[in-house]
Fold this protein.
Amino acid sequence: MLARRAAELAKRSIKTTAKAQGLRMAVSMLDLTTLEGADTPGRVKALCAKALYPCPEPLAQPVPMVAAACVYPRLVPVAWAALRDSPVKVASVATAFPSGQSGLDLRLRETEAAVAAGADEIDMVISRGLFLSGRHTDVVEEIRMVRAAAGAAHVKVILETGELETADNIRRACDLVLEAVADDDEINHGDVFLKTSTGKVSPAATPVSVLVLLEAARAHARATGVRLGIKPAGGIRTAKQALHMLVMVQETLGPQWLTPTLFRIGASSLLDDLIRQLLKMEHGRYTGMDEVALT
Amino acid sequence: MTAAEGTRLEYATAPERLRPQIDASYGLFINGEFVEPASNASFVTTDPATGRKLAEVAQGDERDVDRAVQAAKAAGARWSRLKPSERAKYLFRLARRLQECSRELAVLETMDGGKPIRESRDVDLPLAAQHFFYHAGWADKLQFAFAGATPKPLGVCGQIIPWNFPLLMAAWKIAPALACGNTVVLKPAETTPLTALHLARIMQEIELPDGVVNIVTGAGNTGAAVVNHPGMKKIAFTGSTDVGRHIMHSLAARDIPLTLELGGKSPNIVFADASLDQAIEGVVSGIWFNQGHVCCAGSRLYVEECIAEEFIAALRERMARLRVGDPLDKNTDVGAINSAEQLERIEGLVSCGRDQGAVLHEINDDPLPSRGNWHRPCFFTGVEPSHTIAREEIFGPVLSVMTFRTPEEAIRRANSTPYGLAAGVWTDKGAKIFDIAARLEAGVVWCNTYNMFDASSPFGGTKASGFGREGGRHGLRAYVQLAEARS
């Protein structure tokens, strides 16, 4: 039924006013991401500039800033310097992204370093090796410790759904995150996110895997009242995909989740298509990609 | 805890704008052309979502049925002896043309019947085309379907179809009949005749030989004329159990095969060890698909008592998200009730449920359109096995929720019904699925899914839900006579 429901929701028709609203919403929920070995300070500065001013021309209805810029820990200071006076958050991957295959102490130190350098949000990876070898309590423990190391920074827990393969595994991994936060009485809505993927493994944020995350967050909210955030990442390149993610969130968790506090989309090239669609709605015709400031 | 309130994404109306050409009036389709009925009488077909008249449709009587049977009989002489691979070509052509016209036929189906365009577009039309493709494939391979026997056509088949899936039911009936070399007299339902008549046009376009398919529109009397015509060599009926009984009675003294696909009160059984989120989706699809106008609708829900409270809360939440309204809006989940008569029946049974002490759960947010026939999706809790709403087919968006304690009790309660069309079982335990599915008295048992249809999968009931199968190799059996092969 997962695939059927995901396919059904993908058929929602989001046009005219709904599309204009949804495109802007998607921009405001974007974690604009660059996670390449070739990333340089210059590249990150360009990304941050785009995060602040996503649309090169002023539109009748303004285009919001994105939610965050997501970079590797070594580039956090660059992003922090570019974004410190803005509401755009600095997110950093950590914990031996993308594989998670380092000792826990190193992974915790990396987390601390990223937060110390100015990261507001930490995108951690779980040890899929531990998970798949059945050491589930160790996974719960590492999530708890990364959260402790992250301090006030929000933590997005990357499950790497493509490596977990089955919906059962994905849901079980979600349940481990729920377990890791269950005894935290101080937790606020959106302090912890369930995130699908690193973007380095395919398949990444498939509609079915996202639906599993949404259902887990729904179960958690029903049981505890706490709203976990959701972040699909990887493979979301078109505005249409992004709009359907919003539809899935709205119809699974409810409209109260449609805020950057609780929903993010991790992507790099998606922003260009969102802007292109917004320009099309403004001008009534598609512009060439030359009109969109590529990074 | 800090507040984190989101903003609703307001879906703009997304109307399907294509409008098929609808004629002011339609004749009967006999011997390859549209003709006036003998009586010159007609009836009106309307759009149940607006009450607006769509067209005048000819009212056929005994004389017209006789004309149709004569045409079918004459056509049968050639059609039955046509090279099977040639028959297959006609069916393939029909299937392809159906696909090409699927958008306008989907709109027409929605306008004439009230079902959401999402369903007519994504379910009715693709499945209808699939049935023609599937049976086209069988046409020249029939001897492999019946090992050791030689399948022969029966002759003229009288087929009467219901209003809930008008075009799809026409496909289910016509495709196997033609593949096996029979010819057809089809009687569509009174409230939804238009797509069958447009299918007749497609048959003209693809130059299906005249008289192979004849369509006689009308009401119950027309159907009776089809059943009682002495030229019929086979009767197939899909519809209510009452009418099915009547037909069986009429045919008692005649030696012709009959298949009946009748009503149901199908149980959906949810165990505590099921994937509950998926079970909720299955329950929703089971009862609110096509406004509950589905013979195999999962209209009795049995939930294991230990999860009942949680499950019912989740079901309420999910039900509240259903979008009820204009069937032509692409985002509508639940459309209009097919006829004023059916709406009255549903309302009567709902008030009966209330009177007998069951508790109605309904969403009351969105206003319903002021014109047309509408009923909100709803469910009852506090239903006892003896309540009318636990026993009688409602054929509307109304679910009766009950509980059970053990698997034995679930099976006992599920089987405690005159009907036996379909059933659903929801559990993540494989052994339990096999055990329970085998003990449910139903023609179709869906495990961890519901309302899945495929041309290759036989569909049909037991007990008061009828007999005979449609689809798959089993479905072909109803349209052939088997002679022993000469060795």
User: Anything to note?
Assistant: Chain B touches chain A at residues 1-12, 14, 118, 122, 277-279, 281-282, 285, 310, 313-314, 321, 330-331, 448-449 (CB under 8 Å). The first helix of chain B runs from residue 62 to 79. The mean pLDDT of chain B is 96.
